[in-house]
């Protein structure tokens, strides 16, 4: 499994996310009052983006090495990988809250150091919303409802436009998130966004939100559109997979319309379960538009 997938902010065991866990009580402002965290470290790219969307970017004092958005966080100290951070440096920064994934070893070390933490990973749209609400409550920003409403309005607008252009058809889509042929399933946040666009996901409904498919499975499904949401492969490279040269999407006169290779920035946007779901759905919509070109 590549660093691209693990750095996307997912709980790679693909179970239900543990949405909030504080290792210690937050600092007290006075009787019955609790201070909002002011020195925050984020070890999840999606959480980093959410903090900034909630207007608290200036409270970040460190991030994981995959947190590259928004651009202003790139100047912060990078503290290692989501699943293997530099805990000694974290302790030295004296945070009053660390945002983490559901990684038992990392959580255990934060607990041992008596550092407050919040588990903030998600794999579905519903969990993205729940995490945003929990972070909003912990940070006391009061902005989650407005951020979510605006994002959903943009998702609705894009979805309505795409369904009109599809004219009732349901294009069959293979959404690949890793060169090892991990696909976004229908129950993942990415699969849910595709469903909003009125398409049929070739990945099975059963199983994990993200799953590894075989070349033969995709060949049999013969999707109308292939979306490559990573840079471990390319339209030319996937043609070498067994039998794929016979798929409709891989025919020389069809490949440009039916294989959508996302840029590095686009891949980060669509694979992160955070406050840019509207941008992600717009990227998927642009891929679908190519079918009508």
TrEMBL record:
<dbReference type="InterPro" id="IPR054828">
    <property type="entry name" value="Vit_B12_bind_prot"/>
</dbReference>
<feature type="signal peptide">
    <location>
        <begin position="1"/>
        <end position="29"/>
    </location>
</feature>
<dbReference type="InterPro" id="IPR050902">
    <property type="entry name" value="ABC_Transporter_SBP"/>
</dbReference>
<dbReference type="InterPro" id="IPR002491">
    <property type="entry name" value="ABC_transptr_periplasmic_BD"/>
</dbReference>
<feature type="domain" description="Fe/B12 periplasmic-binding">
    <location>
        <begin position="39"/>
        <end position="293"/>
    </location>
</feature>
<keyword id="KW-0732">Signal</keyword>
<dbReference type="GO" id="GO:0071281">
    <property type="term" value="P:cellular response to iron ion"/>
</dbReference>
<dbReference type="Pfam" id="PF01497">
    <property type="entry name" value="Peripla_BP_2"/>
</dbReference>
<protein>
    <submittedName>
        <fullName>ABC transporter substrate-binding protein</fullName>
    </submittedName>
</protein>
């Amino acid at each position: 499994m590549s660093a691209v997938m693990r750095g996307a902010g997912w709980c790679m065991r693909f179970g239900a996310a543990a949405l909030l866990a504080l290792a210690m009580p937050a600092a007290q402002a006075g009787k019955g009052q609790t201070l909002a965290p002011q020195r925050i470290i984020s070890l999840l790219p999606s959480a980093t983006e959410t903090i900034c969307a909630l207007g608290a970017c200036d409270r970040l004092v460190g991030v994981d090495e995959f947190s590259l958005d928004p651009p202003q966080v790139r100047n912060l100290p990078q503290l290692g990988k989501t699943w293997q951070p530099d805990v000694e440096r974290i302790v030295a920064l004296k945070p009053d809250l660390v945002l983490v994934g559901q990684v038992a070893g990392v959580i255990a070390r934060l607990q041992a150091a008596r550092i407050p933490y919040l588990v903030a990973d998600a794999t579905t749209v519903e969990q993205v919303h729940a995490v945003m609400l929990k972070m909003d409550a912990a940070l006391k920003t009061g902005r989650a409802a407005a951020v979510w409403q605006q994002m959903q309005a943009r998702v609705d607008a894009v979805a309505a436009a795409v369904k009109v252009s599809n004219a009732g058809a349901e294009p069959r889509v293979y959404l690949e998130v890793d060169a090892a042929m991990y696909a976004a399933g229908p129950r993942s946040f990415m699969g849910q966004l595709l469903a909003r666009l009125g398409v049929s996901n070739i990945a099975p409904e059963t199983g994990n939100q993200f799953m590894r498919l075989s070349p033969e499975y995709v060949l049999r499904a013969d999707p109308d559109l292939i979306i490559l949401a990573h840079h471990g492969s390319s339209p030319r490279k996937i043609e070498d997979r067994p039998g794929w040269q016979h798929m409709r999407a891989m025919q020389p006169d069809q490949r440009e319309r039916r294989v959508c290779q996302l840029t590095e920035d686009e891949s980060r946007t669509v694979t992160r379960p955070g406050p840019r779901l509207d941008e992600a759905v717009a990227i998927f919509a642009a891929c679908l538009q190519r079918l009508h070109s």
